[in-house]
Inverse folding.
């Protein structure tokens, strides 16, 4: 027999999330922090490594790490669930709250894993296009929600790959006027001038928030954070796989979070560099630059592919999003170290 004959039909139509490792000297494609941890933190992590018992399973509850995260986010450990990246948490939410072939609603363009994981779990992905300014059209979005009755709604704010935040009043309307779990993905909120939606957790029961350590210097550790009511967390724990955060990630993340001022200083530097990049890029007539509340900048040009190849030839890797649709002609660059950002700007100046 051919085992592929047993494959679910919806899996056949999926495309895997593709990460192409392109050699480059200046890496500006993956929305990572450009900063390595300071030497003294690396020393502390190294000492922890020597004390680890590799023959033992990790702490399944990640108690120490949860405590560190709760202190960093000013919440309680009982309101947290950790995942091997936010992707795992998105999967748990869909597993726990979606019904048979129920709908998962989200605006587009946005983080592609909402749709990929929904389809992988046999759910119907319901994309709703953003307007020309990459904002949610509340009437269209709520109309779609009313017609399709999704069980879960995903809203990335600030949004990836567009970089903008969605209007508070729009998000609040969606939270209050739909009968769905509304997941506000705040992966990039550290780079925003907005405090986020955590203040609403006590008063809006269908709100779930996602955060991550990946964008603030810990991408290698794969630690995603889900924040919600204790009741929601208790139900999600029923579908969480045991030992999902490995011992090294728990120890290294705990060490890094014990120096919150270091993290916050790096975030401030990224924001300052983002603003410098934005102002300089706005002076180039051949490109349209979109305001960003994240650690990256989306921009559009008629010469997108040629610019992408030119940058790559110079050793600078950005994300090529140029395809038919709302992102046609778009590239996305991650804020790097000051000298990397200067080199990027100088290359733009020579190209145009």
């Amino acid at each position: 027999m051919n085992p592929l004959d047993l494959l679910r039909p919806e899996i056949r139509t999926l495309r895997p999330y593709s990460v192409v490792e392109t050699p480059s000297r200046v890496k500006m494609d993956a929305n990572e922090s450009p900063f390595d941890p300071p030497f003294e933190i690396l020393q502390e992590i190294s000492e922890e490594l020597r004390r680890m018992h590799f023959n033992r399973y990790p702490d399944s509850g990640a108690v120490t790490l949860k405590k560190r995260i709760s202190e960093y986010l000013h919440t309680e450990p009982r309101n947290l669930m950790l995942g091997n990246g936010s992707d795992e948490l998105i999967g748990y939410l869909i597993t726990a709250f979606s019904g048979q072939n129920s709908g998962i609603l989200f605006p587009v363009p946005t983080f592609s894993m909402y749709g990929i994981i929904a389809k992988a779990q046999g759910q119907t992905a319901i994309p709703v296009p953003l307007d020309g300014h990459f904002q949610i059209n509340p009437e269209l979005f709520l109309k779609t929600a009313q017609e399709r009755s999704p069980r879960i709604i995903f809203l990335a704010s600030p949004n990836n790959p567009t970089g903008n935040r969605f209007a508070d009043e729009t998000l609040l309307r969606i939270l209050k006027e739909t009968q769905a779990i509304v997941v506000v993905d705040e992966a990039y909120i550290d780079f925003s001038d907005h405090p986020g939606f955590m203040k609403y957790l006590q008063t809006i029961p269908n709100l779930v928030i996602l955060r991550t350590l990946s964008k603030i210097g810990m991408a290698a550790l794969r630690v995603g954070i889900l924040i919600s009511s204790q009741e929601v967390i208790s139900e999600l724990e029923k579908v969480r796989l045991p030992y999902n955060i490995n011992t090294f990630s728990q120890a290294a993340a705990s060490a890094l979070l014990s120096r919150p001022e270091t993290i916050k200083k790096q975030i401030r530097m990224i924001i300052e560099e983002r603003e410098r990049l934005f102002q300089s890029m706005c002076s180039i007539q051949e490109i349209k630059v979109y305001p960003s509340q994240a650690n990256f900048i989306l921009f559009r040009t008629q010469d997108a592919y040629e610019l992408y190849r030119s940058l790559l030839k110079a050793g600078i890797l950005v994300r090529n999003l140029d395809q038919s649709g709302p992102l046609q002609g778009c590239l996305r660059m991650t804020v790097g170290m000051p000298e990397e950002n200067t080199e990027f700007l100088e290359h733009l100046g020579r190209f145009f």
Remarks:
- The chain is about 40% helix and 15% strand.
- Residues 50-259 form a domain with the Aspartate Aminotransferase; domain 2 fold (CATH 3.40.640.10).
- The radius of gyration is 21 Å.
